[in-house]
Structures
1.
Amino acid sequence: MAQQHLDPPTDPTAGPVTSDALAGYLRAQATEFLRSLRQHRETGAGDGGPPGRAKSRLGESGSAESVSAARALRRSARRISGSLHTFRPLLDADWSEGMRPELAWLSGTLAREHAYGARLERLLGALNRLSGSATLPSQASGANAHPAPKGNLTVGAAKAGALLDRQLTLARTRAHSAALQALGSSRFHAVADSVAVLASEVPLTPAAPATDLRPLAAAAADRLTDAVAALPLVTAGHPYNAQALVHGLSADTAPQPQDAPWHQVRLLLRLHRYARELMYGDECPTDVRLLAAGQALNRHRDAAEAASAAASAARTPRIAPATAYALGVLHADQRHEVEAARFAFQQAWQKEAVRTL
Amino acid sequence: MAQQHLDPPTDPTAGPVTSDALAGYLRAQATEFLRSLRQHRETGAGDGGPPGRAKSRLGESGSAESVSAARALRRSARRISGSLHTFRPLLDADWSEGMRPELAWLSGTLAREHAYGARLERLLGALNRLSGSATLPSQASGANAHPAPKGNLTVGAAKAGALLDRQLTLARTRAHSAALQALGSSRFHAVADSVAVLASEVPLTPAAPATDLRPLAAAAADRLTDAVAALPLVTAGHPYNAQALVHGLSADTAPQPQDAPWHQVRLLLRLHRYARELMYGDECPTDVRLLAAGQALNRHRDAAEAASAAASAARTPRIAPATAYALGVLHADQRHEVEAARFAFQQAWQKEAVRTL
């Protein structure tokens, strides 16, 4: 059955939500943060350190446990940071304003290693798909049709894959070292100490106990709704509008400005989601439409960054024309993924709007 | 108001259509053929001949009148040839089987010049669009925002444009020479003589006057319906299915085999359309859905050939990586146009099917 809970934090018929909910949520996330941190240390993510792992390749730098621990760490850091933002007026201003950039630094540093790995996987998968290996069963000569054998790739596609592998694996290794360094830094220890304090005592303002959280959660929902309203959703709902590739060949090497509002909505959707979790507590029902919209925006971000990585690889000096050609096809393919993700978001969001009305 | 006439040649309630309709249609098309040929000669398309025009550029080889005369010539040649095919049993077999390949040769030869010009225009337009010049009004500094100033193109896009311009203009010039040569050949004069005979006397079989054309027209409609049923329309109706680019990087340089069934439907749709014209006579109502489906298939063909031209330009020896990259983006863009055209066809065809049922 589809969930009907859509924007419950703004539901005017529900009773007030007090600062106890905020304190409870922050304490739980802080506890989760500390647990993940302990797990991350125990699973030996720091073993060897940057020098010994400098040449580590995709999939080798960190066990599955340490990867999942790092993910859990980022997950709780984002939730703490998001709640500090949404419910700012209830929290000690100096403390919360000092904490947020530190949490952002931490989760950003931890996220990069994973992001480079995922980007490489996405791009290599697309190269295989574009070589017609993964989807045409008639081309599969043996039992092992997927993943595609490298022999099906053209020289250009194979070289493009090797170049991306080199560049993104290097970036990933560097990100891994940076993450390990960060986790050993005094800056990190200060963040961990702050979170440890948060796990036992949330620094609320004197007025907090008398404050209803609902208007603040509603404001987060409104910021999301306003940002979505500013998106070009009519265009996005028109399949094959060819908008995402409009700057595919522009001289500008910076990230595409047309992506920014979508990235912004992604962040606001996340804040809204965390606010919902906080307001509902353990009973927070899954909102499948919110989930679909969020997944579309993640895909949007991933494809945009993959497209940009392909374009940037194509600027490597002295590459063969065939390599550059394959990277051009790959760039355009990922920009179309961007467009497809916008379409998917529009479809998911439209459904939600209809249900809400 | 939307036209409700969808598949009238198969309408069982209408009266029989006799061979008079076929003879009248063929005579009219033959007359039109001869008129266009006269006009083509009078507008001086043959002036100068191949040597003098060898370096003619896009838009210079032939006046607007001679271009429209050539188009009218092709148009009637296609209609004669199509009718000979659909209503074969009513026509003298030797004569009609001898005539069809000659008409195909003629309209193919005449079509090539136009096709190369249109392909170049499509590709240069796409390069401008991909450089973000034509669609972003904020980038337009002056009053003349369209067509985009060359200054907005990257070096790669500009070089790719220049390369395509060189290659397709050369091909176009050669096609122009070949067309002029064809129009002066004894082979052409033999075709023109046959058409002149057709304009006065259609070589029907003795049994033709007693034959009802409707089953033959219905068979043409059935061939179309069957071919459409074999298309992957479920996939095509799913926006952003990413199927058209599946061989975007495959080693095969031949036209994409996945396009062939769509090209075949395009031809069958045309035969069905000509049969409708013939059955209705001058009263033939416009079927907007058939029109939309046909336009989508034309777009499909044009984009497929443009994508192939971009891929083939990228195989030019010694091009710069930036040029190859731009051609890769362009290739992928046109393959997405192919996918978009399939979606458009699916949408148009679905509408038609619903109305017919």
Note: Residues 93-130 of chain B form the longest helix (38 residues).
2.
Amino acid sequence: MDIANEVRVLCESAKRASHSIALASEDKKNKLLSRIAELLLENAESIISANKLDLASAEENGVAKAMLDRLMINDSRIKGIADSLYSVVALDDPIGKGDVWSRPSGITLRRVRVPLGVVGMIYEARPNVTVDSAALCLKTGNAVVLRGGKEAINTNKEFVRSIKLALSECGFDEGAVGLITSTSRESANALMSMRGLVDVLIPRGGKGLIRACVENSKVPVIETGAGNCHLYVDESADLEKALKIAVNAKCSRPSVCNAIETVLVHRAVAEKFLPMLKSAFDGYSVEIRGCADSCEILEGIKLATEEDFETEFDDYIVALGIVDSLDEAIEHINKYSTGHSEAIVTENMKSADRFQNEIDSVAVYVNASTRFTDGGEFGFGAEIGISTQKLHVRGPMGLYALTTEKYLVTGDGAVR
Amino acid sequence: MDIANEVRVLCESAKRASHSIALASEDKKNKLLSRIAELLLENAESIISANKLDLASAEENGVAKAMLDRLMINDSRIKGIADSLYSVVALDDPIGKGDVWSRPSGITLRRVRVPLGVVGMIYEARPNVTVDSAALCLKTGNAVVLRGGKEAINTNKEFVRSIKLALSECGFDEGAVGLITSTSRESANALMSMRGLVDVLIPRGGKGLIRACVENSKVPVIETGAGNCHLYVDESADLEKALKIAVNAKCSRPSVCNAIETVLVHRAVAEKFLPMLKSAFDGYSVEIRGCADSCEILEGIKLATEEDFETEFDDYIVALGIVDSLDEAIEHINKYSTGHSEAIVTENMKSADRFQNEIDSVAVYVNASTRFTDGGEFGFGAEIGISTQKLHVRGPMGLYALTTEKYLVTGDGAVR
């Protein structure tokens, strides 16, 4: 069977399965998720073996250190994945919820949340996305077709084996979760062309992947997560706070989308702050690529190129720029940002307000780390991704993002 | 200046204007809308003269009767448009509304509604869309770039002249509302390519227009309004109700998207209902195109082709089919429908429930006319279109549909 055909068959199975899972009760869906958690824990050994194969080929292919961390699965991470399944069980199911009202014309309207139908996911290295996505889709009565990256294919196959077993044990159609086993560009393109079978496509990964989906997909796309995030240290910043936030936002997990890639510093505090920053970043072996002015203050750092300011490094690398004003910082950020998360450190509330109002990103922080942009940290429970587009939902996407609405209208012969 | 350039310049002006209108107070925006209403009434004479030019060329080009009705502007319709501006003034502005919560991590989140930015509209004959769209966009702090149809170009220019005058009188940037004067396909394509300048594209019109936007646009699209709507008369229907609903849904305004295009009748009531239906439809000169079985009951009607069941006639034409069961009716509708509005007439509540649950359309009616699918009839105030897609918003789109959200997060050095 060729690749386009494999994808079409999986999507058709998902479409068929979507009709029955859409009508399943919350209780039945929760039992399914709990059973998936149990089976993942039971099958930990075979999952970790499969993951070792993936890690070995990734290392062979010279994959970056931060990326290897994203790919790795061990006992404690499986425990974490199972815990996140239980946390999805604990979340309220939005399906069927809604409101009712009547109109003078004689009609009564019920607006109810319904599943989107079939969700397509295209993602890269992190295999936990496989389970997290399936859990959120199933909880909201959606079927899902997964197309993960080649780096994690063995791990993903093991995960989906447990999920399908749980589906079947709990009386669901196994087609509700499909994994595309081909990880070529052709299989991604095939999934993007499944208009009529797939209701929404959610890409998770780097800028290139997101752009390819946005530009080529015939299926509606939710743009997610490309995160060229910025930290701006204002002239009135508390430099100790600034340092703590910079280190957290860059070094606590550099491979994720809410980590910062560029630090901008007001010229008035640059002489003092830059050496503090370099000394802290040296402790994490962060490579600093600075503008010409910052290279004069910090001897021996690399000169940043235009491209460095455009890049989501996802690694222990940071771009550094000195700016003359808040305006210059805002302009720089609105030019280079992917619209994800940006932070200002300042004790001047006027500057804070202007920064929050004029920066057009999902989350705009004052005196806090960009690392908080996350469904769990925001209090939404699990997330299927972070939308950086303006339509449908913006920011961390929980269960609600996987639903749409429908109007059920009744009358007794009402006409307009 | 070539067409692509004209479009780019208008979009750049809109983008610039969007920054200031986004920050305007509700009061200031309401004054603007009221002033537009006043100016339209003052300029009624020149608007109607321009509209006469449009009507004359449309008639010359053999435009269908129902379409001429959509195009026509007279004093009472200008009064109606002014009234709808005042009704937008009366609606609550969603901008800046939202909620606030804190997290144990030490951050406080404010989630606020913000404008989308720049809205692109591509639409066909109805010139009132020009004013309605501008009003809804301006009220929500958005700029808008309008690309109407060639049939209404003179009327649209007059409308936009009044709008720009009001913008300038009220201290706004005139670029906030732009009208593309070229009505070629090239200008539509240029607007679809303005990614980065235009935040969302809302096409309003026939199936061909919508499909062209969905397939070609690089800007996110909200699919609207193509309405191949159905009425199903169940075996347990009250036939008087069915007749009243059929006549209302087909004949009260056949050119609009929530009018029905196909009537399906259960075989058990066909012998009795079809002659009633024909006699009522004859009073409105509705041409009936029936399936083979209905042609045996109603002598002299035209035999329907497959294409007739796929067609949104927007005219005094209806397709008619006899079905053997509720299942067959549901299957037919899910196959041919554009997902807009469908109705069942039945006294059997089990059939009603099944119909509402299994039909995957925006609005599913029991014993009521599909003509109710409308922002005003649903109680939302004005609407900018009826979304037939599942993402962002489904059904009649009011002010809320023209906004997105943003998270403003504050801490005091909070890190994760």
Note: Chain B touches chain A through 66 residues (CB under 8 Å).
3.
Amino acid sequence: MNRTKLFQQIQQKKSYLCVGLDSDITRIPKHLLELDDPIFEFNKRIIDATKDLCVAYKPNIAFYEAHGSKGWESLEKTLAYIPEEHFTIADAKRGDIGNTSRLYAKAFFEKMNFDSVTVAPYMGIDSVQPFLEFENKWVILLALTSNKGSNDFQFASQNGEEPLYEKVMRKAQTWSNPDNMMFVCGATHPEKFKELRSIAPDSFFLVPGIGAQGGDLQKVSEFGMNDHCGLLVNSSRGIIFAGEGEDFAEHARAAALKLQQEMASILENHLVVS
Amino acid sequence: MNRTKLFQQIQQKKSYLCVGLDSDITRIPKHLLELDDPIFEFNKRIIDATKDLCVAYKPNIAFYEAHGSKGWESLEKTLAYIPEEHFTIADAKRGDIGNTSRLYAKAFFEKMNFDSVTVAPYMGIDSVQPFLEFENKWVILLALTSNKGSNDFQFASQNGEEPLYEKVMRKAQTWSNPDNMMFVCGATHPEKFKELRSIAPDSFFLVPGIGAQGGDLQKVSEFGMNDHCGLLVNSSRGIIFAGEGEDFAEHARAAALKLQQEMASILENHLVVS
């Protein structure tokens, strides 16, 4: 999917919500566990309940890989079930030497037809570049992540000049463009969004960390939005595990609707002139 | 596997060789492609031909994931086929927020019973810690990688003090110990091994980059070895793709034997008094 289509979808749905399919088998409602593929059945119901409210789905690959080849099948079936209009993100945080990253790119872009993959920057240019060689596919590069451990290395300043996350964002933009790269910027650092936006004015940011991790949608949007929205805000557990019983999908819809309505109002204020 | 057993195996076999099972389907000998699971059949023959010469096997997960659920099955079968005496490394370069890293740890340590997983440090402590909570299992943390892109961020100095790879190694040792963490140190930086060894005197280093990537076994060993060896030197393509025909396994054995003999001689010189 290209940037124009993504923005069109955001405008149509008045939403920049991404639903994270972190479908942890230990938290899936019990009545689904009897079915042949509980993870897929869970995802199917979550997708049916939220697809008009969100523009993207993001399965975190760990929750599938944990079940070996069977989990991989659940992932393939889930991806096939997501409507074509949605932007799909393989949250895999991959990154390896060139010939290996190329294989990961093939796995997610050709074998499975995801629109994007999250990639870790530690190994530098040749670990990222193979993912950039596919038309209308995207790298979503870790920049400033939402977790506590983001303080360990990402803020370390480089030669007294810039913190590591900034160096990553600046350098990566010399390899890519806003049509094939986004950055992961965690909502748990809302005070940083003005600066993050100035470092990459035209890029989309994938923003995890609202909901269970405590980030703030209003602040992130106020400072992070650009005139093509430029944000995909993710909620995983806050939506998919909003309910625990047989009516879990209704609870998921209610949680997604609340965020979508908040987003609609923010979009109206921000993009009124565009 | 614990450190004592690993060292015993090194002494018995006079080898610190790790064979990388980067079993790229496009390079597997043609006569195997007719079989039901060519990747597994290839690995099986490589393992039979090299198991007395190496102490570890390291499948790079990308080469399996590229084939979806079928690739995952090849990986599971391969792992089951590796003799118990060998140290097994899932070269996955994972790392995510805590609850997600925990799932990856379960996938590789419980679902599949690997001895170790390679982990990327970018997301900091809570992305690494879940992997450290399994008895006799190991994190192999990326420190100074063997690829060209290692120059992009890993050498950036931190507050004028230390480069990022050094900060990673020092900080990670406050979370772990030499019985549950190793570091990836690329053989393409042989001039750094004296310093790397001084930063982590007792830790094992997993050393990729000899063979196809051009690293130097002698130099790496001279400066990197400690009195419990402390090195696992990996060769992937240089061994597994040494031959292309029906006799590929014999060529793989010859390539592995050459390295093992070189290692035997180095070990004899270095560990004569231990």
Note: The CA atoms of residues 60 and 91 of chain B lie 5 Å apart.
4.
Amino acid sequence: MKKKIRAIQYGVGPIGASIAKLMRDKQAIEIIGAIDLDPAKAERDLGEVVGASDAPWGVKVFADPQQALDLNADVVIHATSSSLAKVMDQLLACLEAQCCIVSTCEELSYPFRTQPELAAKLDAAAKEWGVALVGTGVNPGFVMDKLVLTLAAVSQRIEQAKALRIVDASQRRLPLQKKIGAGLSVDEFRTQVKAGAIKHVGLPESVAMVADSLNLPVENISETIEPKVASERVATEYLTVEKGQAAGVHQIARGLSKDGKELVHLELQMYVGAKDPSDTITLTGHPNISLTIPGGSHGDIATASVVVNSIPVILDAPAGLRTSRDLPIGFFSPSAKP
Amino acid sequence: MKKKIRAIQYGVGPIGASIAKLMRDKQAIEIIGAIDLDPAKAERDLGEVVGASDAPWGVKVFADPQQALDLNADVVIHATSSSLAKVMDQLLACLEAQCCIVSTCEELSYPFRTQPELAAKLDAAAKEWGVALVGTGVNPGFVMDKLVLTLAAVSQRIEQAKALRIVDASQRRLPLQKKIGAGLSVDEFRTQVKAGAIKHVGLPESVAMVADSLNLPVENISETIEPKVASERVATEYLTVEKGQAAGVHQIARGLSKDGKELVHLELQMYVGAKDPSDTITLTGHPNISLTIPGGSHGDIATASVVVNSIPVILDAPAGLRTSRDLPIGFFSPSAKP
């Protein structure tokens, strides 16, 4: 019988907590430790921190990453920040501890065009230590890139790839509703966009992955972030958006050819009160083909799923920086034996 | 600069011809030969046999497989029969010639449960000769298995997997309309089902792939083939189906647990005059999620696409018998350089 996979949860925010709970469900995984700098979480039991009904788990949350990494894990599940620059040292420490990494860091999903130096550094470190890492989740990692490329398998020729994701943020957690600017005036919204405070991270990375994989000659990647203005009052459990206020984001990333032709178009509408949430992919070429997920894939649930399902896959992958594109599909049944 | 991929087309029926034409479009592929026993095709130019507008191609169709295999190809695209037993010798000869294989043989797509001895023999031979082979296409190979497993990546737990493929056979070629029994009386249809003449091959293979990959405890795989009876007269370019006659097949494969619970349900409705053709996948679990391809993926176009898109992937795969599940997604742009 094989041993259980020894996993460390790095970052115990809302996503990290849902990942930890999902890992706890998998017979083949043993969570051996967690890392979080927040004094409200550090030195406590992970099960208690995530509010698990079967707490305590006997799993410690360390404030010092190295103490956790010294436990000799097989894989680190990393969920601390969207910014690759900010998490470089965290990732390098995990690689040096010879741990594979599955990270929710959006900018890690496909950094080869956007941050090639950091990508090269991680790839070299991973190969040096004989481990593999991947940045993934539902978006980037699935809806607007991997699923687009999967559908492309039935295409003979592709001229343009589009994805539209409409998310109703009403049912989502407060930090997410705030992150998309719900309840701000349009002016405040634009100010916060300029300050970099309102932004879904990862669309340019998905554009790059799609363009490179489909061999579409994208030379420039542009991105716009506009408010989705409420046409009527919307009240959620946490906040109220008045008519005329921002209800959320309407963000579009475009991959353009040298002469400005739109080859890749990835559009995210995430706002409270969204009608008909869904994920839709449209490929123009031979043949034209589209695909819809009615209701859309639920952001937090889907991200935790994709991340945990990627664990056996990254453990099997060749050393280096991998992407959701390169990896075979993964599904990790709760009852899968170690 | 890398060399072009040297490919041989084995079998030049309708599917083989459309694969050959698609390969001809790809800059990175050089078709070096073809194989077909049909005296109407053998010893002729492949471009002329497939009716290409740019014929002749200077590519010979051999009646003797070994003569073609002696040309030292990298990959054989094999499209001769749905029956694995019938094509074993063909496949073994290709492996012995150290060619990778992408085959449309439906029973090869996932033979580990249905024909384990043949699967083991092919796997051993492929490993002995250091090459890889895969059976794939649109169904099996994509709609009812790979796409199901791809969608499963956003699931935390799956209780049941369903796929429904509705194909309007009106626009398809005559051999396909005949193969599905269009225009037969219901009695004739049942007689031909009993004789094994009417059957879409590959559903049990897809059930097995889905069950094994999702770790669903399927013990028995059953299959039913019923006529889809025309509720009104339908005329196609080739034939007419009167009201009350069979318009095509309604075929269901089920993966059942020990106690008879339906864990996998794959349903194919392929008939002339089908309304609302589409491919739909439904996963029950946490969360429930579904996906639809409106119009459905076109059988012949999609099969040729999937097969040709699998060529670079199989050349990169470890030696042995592979499945569409194990392989990363492939898309092979016409302009991709060798």
Note: Residues 116-129 of chain B form the longest helix (14 residues).
